[in-house]
Automatic annotation (TrEMBL):
Gene3D superfamilies listed in its UniProt record: YaeB-like (2.40.30.70)
The name this protein goes by in its record: Putative methyltransferase, YaeB/AF_0241 family
Family the entry assigns: Belongs to the tRNA methyltransferase O family.
Superkingdom as given in the UniProt entry: Bacteria
GO biological process: methylation
Organism of origin: Neisseria weaveri
Pfam hit, one: TrmO_C
Amino acid sequence: MQYTIESIATVHSPYKQKFGIARQPGLVPAAEICIELHSDFHIDCVRGLENFEYVWISFIFHGVLGEGWSPLVRPPRLGGKQKMGVFATRSPHRPNHIGLSLLKLERIENGKNIRLYCSGADLLDGTPVIDIKPYIPFVEAKPKAASGFINGKPDELNVIWQPQCAINRLSEKEQTLILQSIAQDPRPAYQNIPERVYVMDILQYEVKFQIRDNTAEIIDVIQKTN
């Protein structure tokens, strides 16, 4: 049986490419997105939602739609060396490419279109949203539940700015977002090349950095021109 699912909203995110996005929601608290509902959905659709602190966002992994899926994947938390069944992971390479994120709802704005502002996001700019639901702690919070091969929050990198970076042109909020994002170590799990320069496309900047041992050094921040 076939079903047709249409998006209800579009994500406006500081993450302009897949590289650099946190692998789970909540790991980068400074990552704020705007979920803009399509014009068919007016203020009545979100009546009462402002009273919830967190929301479930169902979305499409649109950035990998053309890459297909595999029954076995290599989770980054296992160093990219062990295979697990796709349904035992959060891999975006799924049969139906549907994702789920739990985000903090910061505020709702009623303008030309309804906009939900959420933080702790792990979504790519332009992500199609297919559903929004309130998070209900007494039903959904299971802190003592077994979590398979995932044991706690991943270790973070120490992040430093090189002196040549003109960070004074960045707002404190922008600096925090960049630092928190790089601290999550966006490299593929199997890659450890100290001399390699990585480039993250975030906000209106290209951020260049290198990683040696457990320290990431930001070596340049370039403002993109349209």
